[in-house]
Amino acid sequence: MRIDLNADLGESFGAWSMGQDAQLMPLISSANVACGFHAGDPGTMRKTVRLARAHGVAVGAHPGFPDLGGFGRREMKLTPQEIEDLVLYQIGALAAIARSEGVRLQHVKAHGALYNMACRDEAMAEAIAKAVLAFDPTLVLFGLPGSALLQAGLDAGLPVAAETFADRAYHADGSLAPRSEPGSVIHEVDMVVARAVRMVCEETVVASDGTSMRVEADTLCLHGDTPGAAVLAAAVRRGLEDAGVMVASLTRR
Predict the structure, then answer these.
(1) Mapping DSSP to helix (H, G, I), strand (E, B) and coil, where does residue 160 land?
(2) Which run of H or of E encompasses 221?
(3) Do 217 and 74 contact (CB within 8 A), yes or no?
């Protein structure tokens, strides 16, 4: 068994430092790099790409809403054309920086509210898929299993990866519990490790109502802005490998 282990990185901005990128990078196989709209800036993007290259980690674009103040976690009402344009803009920005460092992008993963809204809104999902397709049809589009976002990628002919979240609570319909709900982010290391192993090895997860539901897991996300993110990532990787799971990026299998 194999799994791609990804993390959202490059989310510092100017003098504001966020996350544990240097500690996380050796533990993951794919990095989702913020592109300057919800977080990140050109210098941080380049630094993050260089760090990923040094550790042999695949790089993907992590586009979000233009919402630095809300870290891209506030819902915005934009037209499909506006969404397509802002996603294309952000992919292009990161791709230019990556190219200058001799790195080719592997994937695209929307951030925060943009991701969650597109997972349930077909028009938004199609707009994201159109932006990815227009830039590079070989880029892998990440999305929740069974979501509108993943289906839009399939309909567009893109390679897709079903993404699961070991440190996030799920509703019984397969959606992520909003961060405003108590218990939506799981901090207990042993619990996160157990969920990760179960997601990958058994393709199931226990939802917030106690029911067990089936999930696909091509890539598993850990959040770089979570307190103790590096300790958590090390434990998850160790738990997966102890269970006989190889951690590898989607393009290095």
Answers:
(1) strand
(2) strand 219-223
(3) no
Domain enclosing residue 221, as ranges: 2-247
The first and second tokens of residue 104, run together, are: 């080719």
Number of domains in the chain: 1
pLDDT value at residue 252: 66
- Report pLDDT digits (tens) over 134-146: 999 999 999 999 9
What type of residue sits at position 56?
G
Q: Does a structural domain hold residue 68?
A: yes
Q: Is the C-alpha dihedral spanning 28, 169, 119, 20 positive or negative?
A: negative
CATH of residue 217: 3.20.20.370
Residue 53 lies in a domain: yes
The reply to whether 44 falls in a domain is yes
| SS3 of residue 99 by DSSP | helix
Residue found under tokens 């282990």: 5
Q: pLDDT tens for residues 144-166? A: 999 999 999 999 999 999 999 98
* Residue 184 in this model has a pLDDT that exceeds 90: no
Tens digits of per-residue pLDDT, 85-137? Answer: 999 999 999 999 999 999 999 999 999 999 999 999 999 999 999 999 999 99
The predicted model scores a pTM of 0.94
Helix pair angle (112-120, 122-135), 10° resolution: 110
Residue 74 lies in a domain: yes
Q: What does the block give as tokens for 139?
A: 């880029």
Vertex 230 angle, CA 91 and 213, to 5°: 75
